[in-house]
Amino acid sequence: MGKPTGFLEIERELPARRPVQARLRDFTEIETRLTVVQARDQGARCMACGVPFCHSGCPLGNLIPDFNQLVYEDRWREAIDALHTTNNFPEFTGRVCPAPCEAACVLNIEGIPVTIERIEGEIADRAWDEGWIRPLPARERTGRSVAIIGSGPAGLACAQELARLGHDVTVLERDDRVGGLLRYGIPDFKLDKAFVDRRVAQMEAEGVTFRTGVNVEGEAALAALRAEHDAVVIAVGATVARDLPIEGRELRGVHLAMDFLVPQNRVVAGDSVSERPHAEGKRVVILGGGDTGSDCLGTSLRQGARSVAQVELMPQPPEHDPLAWPDWPMILRTSSSQEEGGERDFAVMTKRFLGEGGKLTALEAVRVELVDGKLTEVPGSTMTIEADLCLLALGFVGSTLKGSGDGVFTCGDARRGQSLVVWAIAEGRDCAAQVHGFLTA
Ligand SMILES: Cc1cc2nc3c(=O)[nH]c(=O)nc-3n(C[C@H](O)[C@H](O)[C@H](O)COP(=O)(O)OP(=O)(O)OC[C@H]3O[C@@H](n4cnc5c(N)ncnc54)[C@H](O)[C@@H]3O)c2cc1C
Ligand code: SF4
Fold it and tell me: Does residue 190 carry a pLDDT above 70?
């Protein structure tokens, strides 16, 4: 375990975030790093419980008490080895994972879990700094080839595992850059894209071939790919967005969240984007209280919005749910973007978009409440919310490509629906094991 009395003596501590005023001026990551001493102290808080509930909280089954102990003992190199046995990309999860492991940590019964996510991130960052993370090409090639469609975290994890097992792996990506939503969804202020580039370079050195600008569309294209390769993996994510087909949807100023977020990531990457929805000087209303909505909020504030409101259909959740442990509690959370500004509202249903001259000016909405488990309009609650830009962050309904058959596998969001990076990596790894079994049977 960490220090036997660590959890009694040492407070939970998270890395400092940059001051709000400074971080709103750029798209640089908002979190600073834990110092070595802070990380060691946080590792010391782990109680090495007889039943480590954190293990079951983590979809990857990360060996959490083991790496906490190693960090506490200053054995960082062994810590990254332990982490890599279950997680290909701990620097991604160490930044963007919502950390269901921390919800399951026994210390979370008191609301003070071990800072597992940031310890994980720090182990990975330190390992990269020290030059301990290097390409691990397979010693022998199998001569079997696999095509992976989609280069998000699921496709990347699957590709890395299969390449290390000696298979010839080609990743096909319809976008111009590799990374999926790590690249063109999650804003740079949460995840610097240099970390994605660094892993892609490692994988290229391990023999993975990346082909961008290749859209695999339809059954025929999939069948052709299957004929060329010994196996095909569909890791195309769940990128089809849920729309809101109500009156006024066609007005200028109403956009899907991704039509707003993706161009911003491109601009940060140095691309010139001629036309894009932009929040500068605008009254922005974001429909959807989840993470994508939150990313729209942080991006709108950085673009200089006049005001931002994030509006959720469901009622406000409670601030605490002590009975949920060790499961993930459905409670009110405040994201880093929400702490930067903007207003939040709950239990609001948009009825129509209002406009003048084809341009959005406002939303007409009503308040709703849960009656017998059903959302019901509150009589007489109709209201108007002024807006020049409305962003629809209402979730995702499915994938662009479906397929099945002998030697065809699916993983990540394409299989489980829009989810989390940690689940995508876990699925990519599991899928690689299945493909390997198929190729070597
Ligand atoms: C705005 C936003 C913010 C998010 N923030 C977080 C977060 O902070 N933490 C977290 O854990 N999760 C977050 N998520 C969820 C997380 O990003 C996804 O669950 C994860 O990326 C899914 O990985 P994937 O590999 O399955 O799919 P994706 O990352 O979606 O990658 C799929 C790839 O397949 C490509 N593709 C699709 N169709 C084709 C085709 N026909 N041919 C070729 N290529 C194709 C796509 O271009 C894409 O690159 C966020 C999601 C969004 C939308
Ligand atoms: S990947 Fe996520 S759930 Fe797993 S240990 Fe890391 S922070 Fe926790």
Answer: yes
